[in-house]
Each structure stands twice: as C-alpha cells, then as structure tokens.
Specification:
The chain has 283 residues and is mainly α. It is 71% helix and 0% strand.
Length: 283
C-alpha cells in the first residue's frame, strides 16, 4: 500500500528514510563517540619484530665507527718508541681506543638483540653467535688495554727521573705486538664465526633476501684463509691482500645493518611465531 502524498509523519518516526544512512550519521555525530576530556588516544605500538630489526640494524652500523683507527693509531704504529717518549699526539689514540670499546659493546648488542629470532631457527647457532661476540669483545678490550698502557708509559713514566728510554721502547713494542695479535683474533678471526652462524640463521629463516647470507658464506671463508696466511707470516694484516679479503664480510655486515634499518625482516613463519610470543611494549 503506497504512502499518501503530503501525509504527516508519525511522531517519533525517524527523519531519515534510509535506516543505514541514519545509522552512519548517528555513529558520526553521536555525542557518545566524542573523546572524553582528559582521555588519552591509544598510540600505535611498534611491532616486536620491527623493533628487533631496527635495533639490530643500528647496532650493526655502529660497529663501523672504529674504521678511523687505521689513521688514528698511525703515530703509535709508525714508531712506538718515539711516541712513548713524547712524539706525536695522543688524542687520536684515545679516540681510537674509545671507538673500539663502542664497537665491542655494539657487537655484543647485535647478538643479544637477535637471539630471540636466531633461537627460533637454531638454538645452537644462536648460542654460538652470542658466544662468538663475547669472545670477540673480550679480545677487543684486551687490545685496547695494551694501547692504553702505552699511553700510560708516555704520560706517567717517560720523562721521569730514572726512566730508561730503551726499556720503554722495548716495552712499547711488546704492547704493540700484543695489540696486533689480539686485533687479528678479535676483529678479523671472530667475525668469520659470527657471520657463518648468523648467515646460517638468516638463510634458513629467509628473514632477509638470500643474497645477504650468501655473501656471508662467501666472505667468511675468504677472511679465514687470509687470517691463516697472516698467522703464518705470508703478509701483514694491513697489506692490500688482507684488506681485500675483509671486504666481503664488511659489505655483508654493513648491508645487513642498513637493510634491517630501512626494510626490517621479511615475513616468515619464524617471525610470526616469535611475534606471537613477544610482549608488546607498553601493554
């Protein structure tokens, strides 16, 4: 039965002929939907996997802050004897030592931050990665102590009454040799094991593009062969061959750090399982 034109509307009947339109309008303009005074709007929290990837990426980039030590340590390496006796500036050596401490701490940080992800793939590889980082940092600190001891000889011993310049030079050469060997074991040998273990985790999990772990699998053996050659005296650790052998590993770690900062982890069943277990910060 059609409605009579011009008929009056029933009191209390809705003004909107379309019930759906009325519902949408009521939801939009209803006073009950307004934010109460003093109420806080919930903020979107960062996904746990994204937080891990971002933190690990930043730490990986920080591990490259010690590159300038190649030049900062030049006064010591050129002639440690004359350096102890007062030649050159010690400011660069202090900054270099500080940067190596930062590198060691950042290295441990990468393993600790990535541990929840790595253990999902392999508990052995995850523990091995953390252990290798701890050993690496311990050796880095040992080398830094050797350099700081050289500085102490320069500032507190050289020039004092009874100081023997020849004995100071000999001691300085011994401390510099100690630093050179600890550098080989810490910042050249240990990255071989770190990258192989992490590369295995990344390859199996597919959390990053496959070319990254493959680069680690190529670079780590090359660096190991070079370290063995240096160990047996084939060439020095600052020779062009040694530098070239270290490039693939350096490219892997720097590229991985940048990728984790910019892109984060790719979707993976390991990431899905982990995200379900990790608490969301602030919840």
């Amino acid at each position: 039965m059609s409605a009579v034109p011009g008929a009056a509307t029933t009191p209390g009947a809705p003004d909107h002929p379309n019930p759906q339109e009325h519902a949408m309008t009521a939801a939009t303009h209803s006073p009950g939907t307004a934010t109460a005074p003093g109420a806080t709007t919930p903020h979107r929290r960062m996904d746990p996997m994204r937080r891990i990837s971002l933190t690990a990426g930043v730490l990986y980039v920080i591990t490259f802050v010690s590159i300038p030590t190649l030049g900062l340590y030049k006064p010591v390496k050129d002639d440690v004897g004359t350096f102890i006796l007062g030649a050159g500036s010690d400011t660069g050596v202090l900054w270099g030592a500080l940067s190596e401490v930062v590198v060691g701490l950042a290295g441990i940080g990468t393993a600790v931050v990535l541990y929840p992800v790595a253990r999902r793939v392999s508990q052995t590889a995850a523990l091995g990665f953390v252990t290798a980082r701890v050993v690496e940092t311990s050796l880095i600190f040992a080398g830094v102590v050797s350099l700081l001891t050289i500085l102490t000889l320069r500032t507190d011993v050289a020039g004092t009454a009874g100081a023997n310049p020849s004995a100071l030079a000999t001691t300085g050469h011994s401390l510099l040799a100690s630093y050179t060997w600890t550098f080989l074991l810490s910042q050249s040998l240990m990255p071989v094991f770190c990258d192989l273990l992490l590369g295995y985790v990344l390859y199996r999990s597919a959390l990053v593009p496959r070319f990254l772990p493959i680069l680690a699998f190529i670079g780590a053996p090359l660096l190991l062969i070079s370290d063995i050659a240096i160990f047996f005296g084939a060439y020095s650790n600052v020779s062009p061959v040694a530098v070239l052998a270290a490039v693939p590993v350096a490219v892997f770690e720097l590229t991985l750090g940048i990728w984790l900062i910019v892109k984060g982890f790719r979707p993976s069943r390991y990431g899905t399982d982990l995200a379900a277990d990790l608490p969301v910060r602030g919840s």
